[in-house]
Design brief:
CATH architecture of the largest domain: 2-Layer Sandwich
Structural class: alpha+beta
Largest sheet: 5 strands, mixed
Oligomer: single chain
Radius of gyration: 55 Å
Number of strands: 10
Number of domains: 3
CATH superfamily of the largest domain: Histidine kinase-like ATPase, C-terminal domain
Strand order of the largest sheet: 5-7-8-10-9
């Protein structure tokens, strides 16, 4: 006996099928359907139709696969097209909704940024009061607060520029007025000396030269004060603080001003708390300048036979400095403006000075983180007081 194994060619239809599904279909009388072998695709089972036949040689069946090759090809093409169209449609819908959601997200995320941009544009166009309302409620609160702070800073800088410009205008006006008088006097007396040099006596010539000299000194003092105040106003002067004896400084100043006081028969004295040597921490040259201006002011407005007292006292680790006089005093109205630049007491105005002395004093005291105060009553003199930090040795 020989066993022959035939290898089936996959490209050719199989010559054998399973007859059990055929019997089942015939037994059911053709009702329903059964899945049978596909000769072209043995690994698949498909719907089939069958009919028995007989002849003289042998009995058999006519076996027909209802889903033929052409049908399968068409079905596969239709399915492929369906899948393709469905995929394209799904991609299109996905892209559309993705763009829609993206645009919505961008609109929502940039809503506050557009609001800030609108406010910034208004500010740029000149609406300096434009601000972002309720900045803490925005998603970019830090940026909103920063913009509001920047706008406030710009407004403050603009106000400072306006004040500086106003100061410049006042400076020009006051300097022009203050310089005009001494310059006119200088020119007048100089021309007189030139024109009448032969006819003037020696005494008259000396008198004219004295007037020219005094007005030259006045001009020099005015220019120095203007430069000094301008530097203080522009914050170009930084105090060089160091420990020094305010007691010794005041003793020197009283000694220097004693001759001027004697000329007007004014009693000038120094009163130091318990005769102590008080040490303060400050800029000695600036404090000396401030005390000189205060003493000049006191001598100017104190009448003959009056008195001026410089007092030093200790108060809460500070040195309290007071310059008191028996002058005409300052009205309550003038006390509010006495430290302003180019301001002088109307009642005491004598045309001397530019009204910068007390303004310079105020700036110097402010550089030492202190404040100067004035107490005065009409006809009963004045008292100027400020404090300096004592130096702890």
């Amino acid at each position: 006996l020989y066993s022959v194994v035939l290898e089936h060619d996959p490209s050719e239809p199989s010559k054998y099928v399973d007859v059990e599904p055929i019997k089942d279909l015939l037994a059911s009388g053709g009702k329903g359907f059964c899945l049978g072998d596909d000769p072209r695709h043995p690994e698949e089972r498909k719907i089939f139709s069958v009919a028995p036949f007989q002849n003289d040689i042998k009995d058999g069946y006519i076996y027909i696969i209802l889903s033929g090759e052409a049908y399968q090809t068409a079905s596969a093409n239709i399915f492929s097209r369906y899948i393709k169209s469905f995929g394209l449609g799904a991609i299109g819908l996905t892209t559309f909704f993705t763009m829609l959601i993206g645009l919505g997200a961008i609109w929502f995320l940039t809503k506050n940024l557009r609001k800030i941009t609108l406010v910034a544009r208004r500010f740029k166009e000149g609406d300096l009061n434009a601000r972002i309302d309720n900045p803490e409620d925005t998603d970019i609160a830090v940026f909103a607060h920063a913009f509001n702070d920047m706008a406030d800073t710009i407004n403050q800088n603009l106000e400072e520029i306006k004040k500086v410009d106003e100061l410049r205008r006042q400076l020009v006006a006051n300097v022009s007025h203050d310089l005009r008088t001494p310059l006119a006097i200088l020119k007048g007396y100089a021309e007189t000396l030139q024109d009448k040099s032969d006819s003037l006596s020696k005494e008259e010539s000396q008198k004219y030269l004295g007037v020219i000299s005094s007005n030259s000194d006045k001009l020099t003092n005015l220019v120095e004060q203007l430069f000094e105040y301008s530097k203080l106003e522009a914050k170009q002067i930084e105090p060089l603080k160091e420990p020094f004896s305010i007691t010794d400084l005041c003793l020197d100043l009283v000694s220097k001003y004693q001759i001027l006081a004697d000329d007007k028969n004014i009693t000038l004295s120094l009163n130091v708390f318990q005769n102590k040597n008080i040490i303060v921490f400050a800029d000695i040259s600036l404090i000396e300048r401030a005390l000189q201006n205060l003493l000049d002011n006191a001598l100017k407005f104190t009448p003959e036979n009056g008195w001026i007292t410089l007092k030093l006292n200790e108060h809460n680790n500070n040195c309290k400095i007071s310059i008191n006089d028996s002058g005409a005093g300052i009205s309550e109205v003038d006390q509010h403006t006495i430290f302003d630049r180019f301001k002088q007491s109307h009642a005491n105005f004598d045309g001397k000075g530019a009204g910068l002395g007390l303004a310079i004093v105020k700036k110097i005291i402010e550089l030492h983180n202190s404040t100067i105060h004035v107490l005065s009553e009409k006809g009963k003199g004045s008292s100027f007081t400020f404090q300096l930090t004592q130096s702890i040795e």
